[in-house]
Amino acid sequence: MNICTYSYEEYLHLVKSFHGNLAPGLIIGGFIVDLAMKNLPAGDFFDAVCETPVCLPDAVQILTPCTIGNGWLSIAPFGRFAVTLYEKYSGKGVRVFLDTEKLEAWPEVRDWYLKKKKKKEQNSDLLLAQIKEAGHQLLSVQKVQVEPEKVRRKKMGPVGICPVCGEAYPSKDGEKCRNCRGETPYTDVVSINATNQKVAG
Amino acid sequence: MNICTYSYEEYLHLVKSFHGNLAPGLIIGGFIVDLAMKNLPAGDFFDAVCETPVCLPDAVQILTPCTIGNGWLSIAPFGRFAVTLYEKYSGKGVRVFLDTEKLEAWPEVRDWYLKKKKKKEQNSDLLLAQIKEAGHQLLSVQKVQVEPEKVRRKKMGPVGICPVCGEAYPSKDGEKCRNCRGETPYTDVVSINATNQKVAG
């Protein structure tokens, strides 16, 4: 059993190293991306949509060329456990999702996925064993036509200098950058002086 | 010159392999994360905030344990070229940003960053050489107090089954999942039958 070009064990190793722990969602995510790759629409380049930010984006980033930073991976915040790979220009895509109708044969996966058990009541060995056994059998596949402009990262456009913080920002955000317009998560902002920076550098 | 635990050349190799190309922003991102790590606030665990989705999240994901999928990396959409690492519980953080006041000595970096030149007018060898030479000298450091609840991924909460698509989704999204409430980027959704799936699986 392989996950894309990796053996199952190699994939688990990558999950641990990139994601930090063997999250059940990321192991199922490996099967999702694997099945999507096997049904890839024809074309030279594909982009990815992940329908949740939880775990699944890391499966896409480990297994495909699509990352958050290069913009080929988008997150559509639907909270559904699904990945779509689509041909960049035509928008023709394949969507693979965890199918709730197929969960009955793997009750530990069902109870985990539908949150029927609290974390401490879950049997994590059994959960991982059922995921490994089930593999693609938890999943269903759809052909979809993607409207890329609905998911793809918007272009940044012209750059301005924010009159408040002095940093560069997208002019389209208005007279000030969004941080200085009040969306900041920071308080007590204090510059560290050049001497400290030298030590740091 | 190192980027965290990697030599500069090793880091470039990782950038190519994860991100697909030697994006200037991701190389500067390496220096940003490196400088932030050197000024890390005391504490056992840190989370990351990236103030743009462009390039920079990949530097964080390559160099730290924080990823989009594990939720330790958040994106605050301010369009500023900055990374903050903060202690998970206290919110004490260090913010490193590309400082527009420091750009004058590296005109090719300035023209690229402030979009003063079109892509085809840029000298990419010179740009990468100036980035390498400048390193931390493009950057400034601040101590900040982060309000984690403003940036951290919200908990998914209870799970429901969407009456339209039949998939699991966060109940807090309403009677139907957000895809089925009209935010879908998909048209022409067609199930691929089990036979095809068997071939694929």
Describe it.
2 copies of one chain form a homodimer. With 201 residues, chain A is an alpha+beta fold. Chain A folds into 2 domains: 149 residues, 60s Ribosomal Protein L30, Chain: A (2-Layer Sandwich), CATH 3.30.1330.130; 42 residues, Wheat Germ Agglutinin (Isolectin 2), domain 1. In chain A, 32% of the residues lie in helices and 22% in strands. Chain A has 7 helices and 10 strands. A 5-stranded mixed sheet of chain A has the order 4-3-5-6-7. In chain A, a hairpin with a 6-residue loop joins β8 and β9. Chain A is globular and about 60 Å long. The first copy, chain A, starts with a strand and ends with a helix. Chains A and B meet through α2, α3, β6, β7 and β9 of A and α2, α3, β6, β7 and β9 of B.
Which topology of the largest domain in chain A does CATH recognise?
60s Ribosomal Protein L30, Chain: A
- Using the CA coordinates, give the radius of gyration of chain A: 21 Å
Per the principal axes of the C-alpha atoms, what is the gross shape of chain A? globular
- Tell me the strand order in the biggest sheet of chain A: 4-3-5-6-7
Query: What characterizes the major β-sheet of chain A?
Result: 5 strands, mixed
Strand content of chain A: 15-25%
Quote the average pLDDT of chain A.
94
Helix coverage percent of residues of chain A? Answer: 25-40%
Count structural domains of chain A. Answer: 2
Would you tell me the structural class of the helices and strands of chain A?
A: alpha+beta
- CA-to-CA gap between the ends of chain A? 46 Å
Low-pLDDT ranges of chain A: 195-201
Could you spell the SSE succession of chain A in H and E letters? EEHHEHEEEHHEEEHEH
Q: Which chains make the largest contact?
A: A-B, 91 and 92 residues
DSSP helical segment count of chain A: 7
Number of beta strands of chain A: 10
Task: Using the coordinates above, name the CATH class of the largest domain in chain A.
Answer: Alpha Beta
CATH architecture of the largest domain in chain A: 2-Layer Sandwich
